[in-house]
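Encode chain A's predicted structure.
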Amino acid sequence: MDLVPALEEPLKQPLKSVLGPATAKVMAEHLGLHTVGDLLHHYPRRYEERGQLTHLADLPMDEHVTVVAQVADARLHSFASAKAPRGKGQRLEVTITDGSGRLQLVFFGNGVHKPHKDLLPGTRAMFSGKVSLFNRRLQLAHPAYELLRGDSEESVETWAGALIPIYPATAKLESWKIGKAVQTVLPSAQEALDPLPDSLREGRGLVPLPEALLKIHRPQTKADVAGARDRLKWDEAFVLQVALARRRHTDAQLPAVARRPKPDGLLTAFDDRLPFTLTEGQRKVSGEIFDDLATEHPMHRLLQGEVGSGKTLVALRAMLATVDAGGQAAMLAPTEVLAQQHHRSIVEMMGELAEGGMLGGTEHATKVVLLTGSMGVAARRQAMLDLVTGEAGVVIGTHALIEDKVQFHDLGLVVVDEQHRFGVEQRDALRGKGKQPPHLLVMTATPIPRTVAMTVFGDLETSVLDQLPAGRSPIASHVVPAADKPHFLARAWERVREEVQGGHQAYVVCPRIGDEEDDPKKSGKKKSPEDEAEKRPPLAVLDVADHLANGPLHGLRVEVLHGRMHPDDKDAVMRRFAAGDTDVLVATTVIEVGVNVPNATAMVIMDADRFGVSQLHQLRGRVGRGSAPGLCLLVTEMPEASAARQRLGAVASTLDGFELSRLDLEQRREGDVLGQAQSGARTSLRVLAVIEDEEIIAEAREEATAVVAADPELTGLPGLRTALDALLDAEREQYLEMG
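Encoded structure for chain A:
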């Protein structure tokens, strides 16, 4: 982060290495540490206490102890084992004594050579390890030890009482080697430039940066660790929030055309035809959006709302307001299924108002066009003509909208649905299609905890829709433990039959399609321990549909839907399901976002443990969209005590998406809050936890906004500028530029 010349010194360079060339190479390749500053910011994950010095006579079981003792004898034994069948296994047994008692130490395998040389009878040393019982005798297996040369009482006390830093390490480089490397570069910490303004640091009682770096790596007490972590958390939160505040400040300087709806225009005509009144939340959020649209710099707003809270309606009203004001509005959807569905539902909601230029269209009507990659040439050409002439006020499409050939007459508003599915470049390309930067509204149905919104989407203002419209039904969710209780799964299929007999429909969701390669080597993905424990591949749509149609759901109309089908086929399947001509739709997560069939009341999610918490919540939101109550069954073969089962239990126990998103985040950790979506880089947050440190992030945002307002170029804060440059390497800078 705060890298200055001494801290910018490479760990590995041709003529002189700060560290040995082999160590520097491993650090660069496996830990991404290239400079002295990188290494100083590689903080310990936790600290071991060697424990107070313990007499051998009163050793506690299962505790980490440190003893000072003399080697009485050391013997090397050979033995046969599965790994060394010819009796070539080696075990070193060392007996130590401190006058109060005796204790056995044991070392195995390749680990015997060094202690065999070091621990000769008569040698005095400190030993540190966990006490265990073997053959009814206490022992320490593979203890750490430090030989005592010259009987310095002081070295005994400091060594025993110290907190031992445990670093994030790799198989190629153990934590204690990283610790030694840090020790080598620690003097450079004195030259670290402080990114925090003095007034902020002093006002909040934070220690200076060089002191924080010394104390995080070499703490004397737990208070040292706490003080250092508080300080370093502030660095991370503040520098990140300054980056975002500068982004907002720059955006505020950009010109945009203010879009105010006409008093009795298209928006009024649309509102008059709505068969229901808007919820309080929809009115409030629409107000925030209309205020932004009326300004002469681009709106950057994130609209987050639970599944079914009516975000599409709010976005449509913003689009119609833009058309009213003489501009065009584009909605970008992540999949063709969703783009087609949005187009269908928007045209239905608008009725004759969507028939601009056609017979039957009213005076305020505009044209609503769809543009996707798989449309026929003639339909595509017509849609593009409608856009360039301005005939079409509203366009809904996939990333086909971004292609160079697509030109707009006057693009005023871009609505991005499910932001996390679009690359930065794609959003940027669409924004570049306006004569001036268009207003931007980003929608997500994944509830985002407030602090994450302040970090990941910190350059956007946030609106939240947390009220469900009247008429939405509650969804009951249950975990179905298929391995422990197979009869529960049989009952699940009976429930699906009952829903269909009651005139309703059901979804069955599977993690996989079923026609892909099953060779695990080809997937290239590292398996989680839970996947390893369960060798079978995830259930697939094609297999499950076949099994259900010929087995538990025999006689019902079962169809499949997945991402590799031809777009026309997908659309036909969705139309049949929406019309009620299909009883059960067996699908992948293509139905996760936006699919709206009010008559579908039941969902069975197979291998539910293979999905993330937020994804399960999204999927579940597809049922209970009408007046009949919804049912969601989470099928898993995971054992009751597993983390996966607990996660599913949490999903079943609450319908509060914000609560679940916190849980999801706690389990996945934050990723790289700036670059993860684009680069998969290592996290830029080392000590700051987005969930736990909510207060620090909120305060840092306020401080950052004030600092940037007073000095946008940060001319008076060279340390902060340096820290920003280090945080915003070219890739992340671009990410913020486009976000």
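The longest strand covers residues 64-79.
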